[in-house]
Specification:
The chain is of the alpha+beta class. A hairpin with a 2-residue loop joins strand 5 and strand 6. The protein folds into two domains: about 80 residues, SH3 type barrels (Roll), CATH 2.30.30; about 45 residues. Helix 2 packs antiparallel against helix 3. The chain contains three helices and nine strands; from the N terminus they run αβββββββααββ. It is elongated.
Length: about 160
Amino acid sequence: MKNLTILFISLFFVNLIFAQERVLKIVNQVSKKEIIIKENKRIRIKTIDGQKISGRFKIIGKETIFIKKKKIELADIEKIKRNPLLVSIVTNGLFIYVGASIVIIGVAVGGITSQPSLLLLTIPGAGMIYTGIKSPNLLKGHKKDSNWKYELTTTFE
């Protein structure tokens, strides 16, 4: 019975040690609000030199993350946004679908009625298709200039 108790306690501590998960913690220094993004989640970042990179991130050091075969220091990041795959698919698909529908309706109705002014509907339709291709991210970003601080840490699941 004593050995069984020791076995359960040691298994509990081993599980506790390996259950730690590495996360990117974003903290607002004024309001003390914390946002935690787990490793391997999709994010979109903008670096100080103007590069925009999006994808799943890995933590490879105390101050370094890895996105799309690029090592990025936390000090080089100007802005971080979450970039969930489902939201990207829905917004892109919606903009492209609605834009294509507007273009098709504008061309069809303009051709049938012989009114060239209805062909102007293709302009907003083309704009919506372009917006869908450019992949808009409507989620809030966290800029370093707005008192947000980025740090890498571990947390329990």
